[in-house]
Each structure stands twice: as C-alpha cells, then as structure tokens.
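Weekly sync notes, structure subgroup
Attendees: PM, AL, DS (notes)

Item 1: joint prediction request from the bench team. They want all two components modeled as one assembly rather than separately. Inputs as received:
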Amino acid sequence: MSPPDVRRRAPRQALLLVVLAAVLAAALLLSLMIGSRAIPAGDVLAALFADVDSDDATVVTSQRLPRTLVALAAGLALGAGGALMQGHTRNPLADPGLFGVNAGAAFGVAVLVFVLGVQAPAAIVLAALLGAGVAATLLFVLGLGALRGDALVMLAVLGTTLAAFLGAFTQGFVLLDRQTLDVMRFWDVGSVAGRDLSATALVLPLAVAGLVLALLNGGALSSLGLGEDVARSLGTGVLRARVVGIVAVTLLAGTTTAVCGPIGFVGLVAPHVARRFAGHDYRWIVPASALVGAVVVLVADTLGRVIAPPGELQVGIMMALVGAPVLLVITRRRRLVAL
Amino acid sequence: MSAGRTTAPGVAAVRLGPVALRVRRRAVVATLAVLLVLVGVLTVALLTGALALPVDRVLVALAGQGSGVEQLVVGRRLQRAAAAVVVGAALGCSGALTQTVTRNPIASPDILGVTAGASVFAVLVAVRPDVVEGALGVPPQSVVGVATVLGGLLTAALLLVLSQRGGFDGFRLVLVGIGVNALALAVVSWLLTRAELESAAVAQRWLVGSLEGATGTEVASLGLVALPGLLACVVLADRLGALRLGPEVARSLGVRAGGTQVGALVLAVVLASAATAVVGPVAFVAFVAPQIALRAFRTAGPPPLAGAAVGAALLLVADTLAQSLPVPLPVGVLTSLVGAPFLLYLATRSLRRTRG
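Output from the run, pasted for the record:
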C-alpha cells in the first residue's frame, strides 16, 4: 500500500530518474572524452558506433571504454549499497567504506593471498565477498539496536574500529609477505583503471543480482523506516527484509571491492544527494542513489585523470578527498538527525 | 616515617618530617604493579631475541664488558626497549590529556586522526627525500621530526575549527576526526602508490607503527620532548582535575578553563606527533593506556602520568610479544588487534546504556 501523496509524487520522481539518467549519459560521454589526450565527442561516438581505425578510436575502445564501464558498474552498486545501509541502520553516516564492509572485503583478499597463496581472479572475488558479508552482518547486528542520537556516533565509531581491526590483520599479512604487498598495494587504493576485465565479467551477474535485490528491498525499507512494529503491522516480513538487505549490501560492496579495491564515501554521498530529490520513499531513493553514485564515480574518475598531471589520482583517493569533506558537512549540521 | 590514621577509606596520610602526603592505597598498589610489569617485561626483552644469550652474558654485556657482538646485541635490545618505553609514555600521556579536555574517552589523538595527519607529513618526507633536500637544502632525516609535529598541530587545528559550531561538541569532534582520519589515510595511500616499491615497503611498515627503525638519537630527542611534557602534566594536574568537571565548574573554581584546555591540547598533540615521528602511528595506545590507567588506579578521570606509565608498559609488552612471534610483526599491528576490540567493547557498552 502507498499513501496518496506518494502516488501523486510518483510522476515527478519518475521524471527525476530520467533527468538523472540523462546526467549519467553526459558523465559517461565526458569520461570517454577527457584524459591525458582530449578526444572530441564526435570522434568518440564514431569510435564507438562506426568502424573507425585511428589512434583516438583505439584509445577510446581499449582504454577508456573499459574503465568507464567499470566505473559505471561500481558507482551504481555503491550508490545503491549505501542507500540500503543508511536505510537499514537508519544512520546518515552509513557507508560501506566508513563502516568497515570494504575493509572486510580487503581482509578476505589478504587472507587468501597470504595464507593460501592464491591470486586467481575468481578466488579473489569470492574471498572479497565472504569478507564483506561477515563485516556487513556484524554491522547490521550491532546497528539495529542503535537508533538514537548518541548511538549514531557510536555506530560510526564501531564501523571505523571494525575497519581498523580487520585492517590490522591485512596490514600484518602485507608486511610479512612481499607477494601480498604487491597485490594489496595497488588494490588497496580503489581504482577503476587497469582492472582485470575477466574478473569484472565474473562478478557482473552478482552485482546485477545485488542491484535487483536492492531495488526490491526499497518498499520494505520504507515501511521499516516507521519502526519494526509498524512495518510488521503493515505486512512487511521484517526478518526477510533484513536478510535481503544484508545479502544485497554484501553483493554490491563485495563485488565492487573485489574488482576496484575499496572505494569509500560513494555510499555516503549518493543517498544524501538522492534524498534531496527523491524524498523519503526508498523505492525511489535506492534507484536515484544508484544513478547518483554512478555519476559521482564517473566524475571523480574523470577529474582524477586531469587534476594532477602527469600522473592520475585513483578514484578511491578522489572519493576520499571529495567525500571526507561531505562527511564533515553532514556532521556540522545543527542536529545529527536519525533517519 | 610513620603511617598516620586513615583519613578516608583507601586513603592514608604519610608523614615524613614536616611533609605530609595523602596517599591512596589503590594508587600505590597500581603503581607498583605497573612498575613490576615494566621491569619484568624489560628483563624478558633483554634476554630474548634472535640470538640466544644466557643471563650471565647479558649481565656482563650490560656492565660494558663481554664480546663486541654481545655488547651490540644487548645494546640494540636496550635501545629498542627504551624506545618502547618513551614512545608508550608519550602516547599514554597524550591520550589522557585529550580525553580529559574533551571529556570523551574516544577522543584520543590516534582515533581523531592527529597521528594520521602527522604521518602524512612524515611520509611526504620519507618518499620524496629529493624534493625536501632541494627545497630546504638540509638532509631529509633531520626535518622528519619537525615536519611530523607540524603536521600533527595542523591536523589538530583543522579538527578544532571544523568541529566548532556554536560551541564545542565532543561527539561532533569524534565524527570530524573520523573524516579527517580517512582523508589523511587517503593522502598517505596516494603517496605510497607514487613511491618505488622499496621505499613503499619501508613507508608501509613505518605507517603501521614499528620500533624497528627507531635510532638512539631519535629516542633521545623524543625523551627531551616527553620529559618536560610529563613535568608539565604535574603542574597542570590540579587544573586538569577541575576541567574534568566541565569548563563552567572549572571557571568557578578559579581555573582559566580556555587557557588550560589549549595548553593541554597543544601538549598532547606535540607528544603524540613527536612519538609518531619516531615510530609511526602506533594505533590505539593513546586510546587504551589512559582507559586502563583509569580503571587500575581508580581515578576520577584519565590520569596523564599513570596513563604514561601504563602506555610505556603496554607498548613494551606489545613489542616484546610481537618480536617473539615466529615472524616478527611491527608493534602497531599488535596494538590494533588488542586496542580495536577494547574500543568495540567501550562503544557497545555505551550503545547499550543509550538504549536502556
């Protein structure tokens, strides 16, 4: 059931999604155009759709297209995952990076490389998923009790502590083993460039599944926002909704981290932007947040290419540089409101 | 010397000629216990290591005799233990000061990102020595300390400015600290990806916090910072005690609250950053040590001096443990593994209290 005003707003919000999708398309195009060598939009489109054979075309199809697609997928996943985490924990600071889910995935990968000496992409993905799942479950269990003002802060502290704890293990493995260091040093800084496309193809179905689950979870999440008792009386299966939420967050954050390394703050920023436009209904917030997340990651990645020549700033670092100030702004609000 | 009558439960008056002191039994017992741990672990640290040396040879070497190898080995062990003690004391004292001023157990320099901010500057010097040498015309090693302390102070100033909004808010400070910490870590990771693998391995190890690279001169110069710092804590003790009751009460007790807060914070940041310059950001010691001291000494708030003593013992224990593992780990990994669950415990307990 949906309250009448929601139904009335629906066309507006559908329009909003269309606008967001248009912005996303523009961001995609910019990502293909901008880099150490600027390529005009016409040439980009020609390279994509016509069979052109030029240096520019090669750059577009072999270099920029893959990283743009990875950025798109990562942004969609992290944006949706962040919205789910903020909804389920009812904490405006929830973010897979800040709350230790990414650290859990990194921990899983480090254990794999260090203990088992395995570096196969499929195994890395699996290990990252497993680590993310454990961390997400832990946080949800802790977070569900934390619904009041001070508890909001404590949950953020819990998350960062969990990240520090798992990070200590990861760091220990890295220090003990040069092979692990070599894998983790670059993986540890989230980036969408030069990522293994076979690994991406491997996790794509999982990420899509996560995205679908996240979208399906939106309705239940909205009624859960009224409190578990009210949600139950509205006919929401509370336990099922929570489990779906955990699985979706794990799939989304785990797959992204497995391919790109930990990218923080997307999941923090995107839902806040989405909420500005989409209101309080998670059926709209989740898709809007996914689209915003994709735009944010694409813009961050594109900016990172040109902001510090001759090198590049990885998107993980760009997101921290952009996202940490956003976190600061959120905390500077007069009251830290619970969601 | 004669023990006087008991003035309050657990408190004894000790008279020594014209001087009379009120002594809390608990504090005496706790002090003795911490000293015992320190001496015990120091003995273990001197006796164990990659090269097995019998007790008598260690004693001979300590006395300045014995073979060159023995003297070298024992000398290095002693130096490493000294580094652990001095760094631990600086961190413990620093944490107690910040926890007292902010009246928040979580607000310690390592969790708020002060040490991370300080290490940004240290890593900058460590991975780009050529730039530093070109810009300043001095060898990079000589400016690491100054750069780190400067970085710590800048980070702390940033924290305070950002968490100021219509008055000071301890919770906001923690959240801002988490953000600043993430920001500083991102910058450090970026610097590391730009470095050669060799120096990245060094910097990585250095970033976790390790006593491996601490040289005698570094430890000595940290001691020169830490000792006056600890003495300043003795001077500040009364005022800090008043501050624990809140700035308003402190003011009504005749304490200049603002000045004391600023002084204590600057002292805390300098101590923590100076320690970071020597061993890197050893996590959680500054957070845990005062909290252990608070419970062991049963004081009203986190005690700076007892915090320093516990910090010294804690770091020495952690490093000796880390060294005795089959593959020696840097001490920072071990302190995180111990400190993080303690923080989780404190946080969940406060969650439960908020809910109940």
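Discussion: Chain A has one domain: 71-331.
Action: AL to compare against the crosslinking data before next sync.
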